[in-house]
Design a protein that fits this description.
Keywords: Membrane, Transmembrane, Transmembrane helix
Order of helices and strands: H
Number of helices: 1
Radius of gyration: 27 Å
Helix content: over 70%
Length: 63
Amino acid sequence: MALRLMMDMQSEAKVSCYLKKAFSLLETMIVLLITSGTILMGYGGFKGAQSANNEKIFLEDLK
């Protein structure tokens, strides 16, 4: 009986450990997703501003 109780406690500890690792992995993935999205949005805004600037220069050259 005591051995079975110890085995149950060990299996619960393993499950708890796996759950902690799974949530840690999920948290890491969410942080990376938010970070990469922010970087891509900033890069898109930078490219858009650069494109608008190039358009101004091109239109000034036509005059």
